[in-house]
Design brief:
488 residues; alpha/beta; Translation Initiation Factor Eif1; Rossmann fold; 3 domains; seven-stranded parallel sheet; 21 helices; 18 strands; 41% helix; globular
Length: 488
């Protein structure tokens, strides 16, 4: 939207909508003094502001007694335009869809229905819905309702669904087929090497496949959905959303946000106000999701090692940890001793993931299925592995955080092992979400969080500090946890 105001107010708006990017002090552009570390959401050159920030513009104007006059555009409407959605008609529409999952009829839960009505009413929204809450079903109903009931305002428009990985393109496609869509006729997939043109009404694509395409290509879409939109921080993704000028309906969906004001305002600018669909705790309390036990295994290293460790930088410390023979042997023994399907998550492919996989595979008995997944494994193969594990009772998947921490659904997962340290709230919560779906035998999920204590006197190591950040996340989410000290 364009904000007409005098130069002084424009500068005030620029300050109001400017924020330091988390970690800006460590970024090369800031260190080289070519950037001040801030992201600016109001463009003083064009006086443009993302429409999703209109409510915050009103918040800016109110205490300053600046009157806000909204001009209605006959083609694009006004920035605060809403739909007169009748919940009864939405309910009737859902009933007529005859939704299925795994061959059986399914019902839309109350919180899902409320989220669908909220999104359709506002036309734009960031739906925060934790793993296991049925996020893909919400997306499915939104696109079906848009194509069936809302399309045609500006001519017949398609739906674009943007996801971060090729695995999620395939998974979303499979989910839609499961719910009852004739995907071969109505759904087109775009990722590496796939055709960019189609006559089908729904396009599912990775952002990497389309961000360089011209604005003209995006004109065909009247509804854009950014799944796992917590990844929509980079310039490429913002560029995509800014090219979608015909998209009257914009919905972002995610299991969790990273908690920073900058991130949340950028997302709200692109998609609209944040709406919390439900919480993991509520879903656990009503038995929709598994209960979660967290065991923090605090590995204490011998005094000699801790004393000689010195002031290693973060990368040297990680390098030491992931190559530590005793630590990897402990992870191997843990993965093979646990009962049920186990997911081992690692960060570095060559120096940790592959050696860890070989270690576990060589020690496993012949009947035990051990799988390896990283970005180097084809998306179709990852989908096959996911399907196999859902039918297993005692498999081990050694997977990279990049491929399995976000969005991948496994219905029959009993244990997760954090083999690599992380302090990212998004990554931690997304990874936990992999184990919260109810398993076939109804057993609870268990997370084993490997933490590393290499402190000496007052000197604390990086990964020990990161483990404390994860504990804060567990406490905030009301997960129960225990700390077990393990001497290596």
């Amino acid at each position: 939207m364009r904000v007409e105001c005098d130069h002084g107010i424009a500068n005030e708006l620029s300050d109001f909508f400017s924020f330091y990017v988390p970690g800006y002090k460590f970024m090369p552009a800031y260190k080289n003094r070519v950037w001040d570390g801030k992201i600016r959401l109001f463009d003083v050159r064009t006086n443009e502001l993302p429409v999703g920030l209109f409510p915050f513009l009103r918040e800016f104007a109110k205490p300053r007694n600046y009157p806000v006059i909204v001009e209605h555009d006959k083609f694009y409407g006004s920035p605060d335009a809403t739909n007169g959605i009748n919940p009864d008609s939405v309910l009737e529409f859902i009933k007529n869809e005859q939704l299925m999952s795994r061959g059986s009829p399914i019902k839309v839960r109350d919180y899902q229905f409320e989220a669908i009505c909220e999104a359709l009413h506002k036309k734009r929204s960031v739906l925060v819905s934790p793993t296991g809450s049925g996020k893909s079903l919400i997306i499915y109903i939104l696109i079906k309702y848009y194509l069936g009931m809302l399309n045609g305002h500006r001519g017949s428009k398609k739906v674009l669904i943007i996801v971060p990985t090729t695995s999620l393109v395939q998974q979303m496609y499979n989910d839609f087929e499961d719910y009852g869509m004739l995907v071969e006729n109505g759904c087109h997939k775009i990722y590496s090497g796939k055709d960019k043109e189609t006559n089908k009404g729904v396009v599912i694509s990775t952002w990497q496949s389309i961000y360089k395409l011209p604005a003209k290509w995006f004109e065909k879409f009247g509804c854009v959905i950014g799944d796992e939109c917590h990844g929509f921080k980079s310039k490429s993704l913002t560029t995509i959303m800014n090219k979608c000028r015909e998209a009257e309906y914009r919905f972002g969906t995610t299991g969790t946000l990273d908690g920073t004001q900058t991130h949340e305002l950028v997302l709200q600018g692109l998609f609209g106000k944040i709406y919390n669909v439900t919480t993991t705790k509520k879903l656990q309390d009503n038995n929709t999701l598994s209960k979660l036990d967290i065991n923090i295994l605090l590995l204490t290293y011998p005094e000699k090692i801790r004393k000689e460790f010195g002031k290693k930088d973060y990368h040297d410390e990680l390098d030491f940890i992931v190559k530590h023979e005793g630590r990897n042997k402990l992870i191997k023994n843990l993965a093979l001793d646990l009962k049920g399907n186990t997911l081992v998550l690692f960060q570095y492919v060559e120096k940790h993931g592959k050696p860890l996989f070989e270690l576990i595979r060589n020690a496993a008995d012949d009947e035990r299925k051990i799988f390896y997944v990283s970005g180097q494994v084809e998306a179709s193969d990852r989908e096959v592995i996911r399907g196999i594990v859902e039918s297993q009772k005692n498999a081990v998947i050694v997977a990279s955080l990049g491929t399995f921490s976000t969005g991948i659904n496994i219905r029959n997962l009993h244990n997760i092992i954090f083999a690599s340290p992380s302090k990212s709230q998004v990554r931690v919560l997304q990874s936990i979400g992999r184990s919260l779906r109810k398993s076939d035998d109804g057993s609870d999920a268990t997370l084993y969080d490997i933490a590393d204590d290499l402190h000496w006197k007052l000197r604390r190591n990086f990964t020990l500090t990161h483990s404390e950040e994860r504990i804060k996340i567990y406490a905030k989410e009301q997960f129960s946890y225990k700390i077990h000290e393990v001497k290596l």
